[in-house]
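Following up on my earlier message about adenosine-5'-triphosphate. Here are the inputs again, as you asked, copied directly from the submission form:
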Amino acid sequence: MADEAPAVALRRVLIRYPGRAPIGPVDLTIPDGEIVALVGASGSGKSTLLRLIAGLEAPSEGEVARAAPRDRVGLVFQAPTLMPWASARTNARLPLDLMGVPRAEADRRAAAALASVGLEDRADATPARLSGGMAMRVSLARALAAEPRLLLLDEPFAALDTVTRRALAEDLHRIWVERRPTMVFVTHDVEDAAHLATRAVVLDATTGAVAETVELPSALPRPDGFRNGDEARAAVERLSAALGRAMGSGR
Ligand SMILES: Nc1ncnc2c1ncn2[C@@H]1O[C@H](COP(=O)(O)OP(=O)(O)OP(=O)(O)O)[C@@H](O)[C@H]1O
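Thanks, got it. Here's what our run produced:
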């Protein structure tokens, strides 16, 4: 809705790291409930933007505003980063334990989160007994246990095989349909972006500023056969062209 506060708003954000030109300025508004893919050349600043949105890092200049409070922001990284000695349930419960949520309530929410990624049967398994895809799902369940309004994912698919990444994309769409969180994810893959996201933000390879925003098909969950359909193919082409333009000046 147009007059609702955006989930995220970055205004004239600049990030300075030693030994390189500043990243930005980045102006970016993400409406509530969108699924946004951050795409751009390697080193353009995708992960940095995600850390800024998460509040893990502060900008050198400009403003970062986020509607969701810190404890309603979920983070998922490329590596699942699970506690190896702990069960899937205990891993999923971790943020709730850290927040001091009472045990019975935390167990209930962890169980619901594991169920929403199809792992209710593996709640007692330790990470060594889970496949890579399942470990990623536990990592996603851990983020979901806090019932995030904003879910941030840094290359969640990068380490997964094609079948597993597609299954995870379906999980994410199902979660979106059930809970309507705003999702922002980093990807290198234009097909994953076009399939999962409702819009893509393309970063300029040289400056890290937003080069273009590409609107993607908005019907969620995706209809059967979407990936191979004309609409998806056209979206991949538009996005590839935008990425090509954003990389045009080189680094
Ligand atoms: N903590 C840091 N200290 C210094 N430089 C950094 C730091 N974090 C990122 N950078 C630099 O900022 C730039 C952007 O990095 P970032 O990881 O955000 O890019 P990216 O688009 O996510 O790249 P990739 O696709 O390769 O993961 C890079 O040049 C990187 O070397």
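One observation from looking it over: The radius of gyration is 18 Å. Hope that helps, and feel free to reply on this thread.
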